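Chapter summary example.
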Amino acid sequence: MTSFIDLEVFVRTVDGGSFSEAARALDITPAAASIAVKRLEQRLGVRLLVRSTRSLRLTEEGRRYLDSARLALGALAEGEQAIREKHQGLSGVLQISAPSDFGRNLLLGWLDEFKLQHPHIQLQLLINDRQADLFREPVDIALRFGQLADSSLVALPILPQHRRLICASPAYLQRYGVPQTPAELAQHGILIYQPSGRRQAEWRLWRGDECIEVPLNGHYFTDDGEVARRWALAGHGIVRKSAIDVVADIHAGRLVQLLPEWQSDAVPISLVCPHRSQVSERVRLLQRFLQQRCQGWMEHHLA
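The structure predicted for these 303 residues follows.
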């Protein structure tokens, strides 16, 4: 029978990129990590990793087997976690990464409420629009907006159909006019949000099957989502922001939604984990809690 220890060494080696990283994570020697993977390969009768003096890479068989290994380890971890939490009560640490605007203005207050409901859970919150590296940084779960670039991550849905909205302050629109078509956006000052320093060159908008790319012209650039929203509130230009971040401002009249018949690409909100083994009961509780709060927030301000 395949050893779960060998499975974990294999997965850790892939995630860390070397036997040394797997050994460090599991408190064994690199030689022991290498032997564990060889033992797994011998049992399966296939090569899982191609080794060189400088690097490791998965074979085709290794890529196929990796998903099964993650599922097996995840099922074992979920079972162990359920037993511990049943006998010990819900406790432990939740290390969460969240984007700036949502994190400061919504999540922070909601986590206070979550902590009152589960007083033995310890919360650690990292707020930053730079996406945390879940394999290398001290973060268990991240709240992410948009489609996942890394298909190996586990995504737990919060708001699957969420989108961004284009909006500006009444003062800005009174001064510069209201754009009636996407093409007219080129005549306006755009507040350009560029997380992780990635320059945003255009907005892609949809109306049914019709798609148009709008080039951006702006004098305000930021890598912080909250700053972009504050600039919009101050009347510095037009912004495209996640609906959950601006729906209260629109509801209160502080911002006005523009071109409502045109939609941006979907940016689903999810809780993301590096491994299914980290989807503990604590994480499931937080997922359900945030689903309720996010849906309630949107429904209240769209009513």
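To summarize the output: The radius of gyration is 23 Å.
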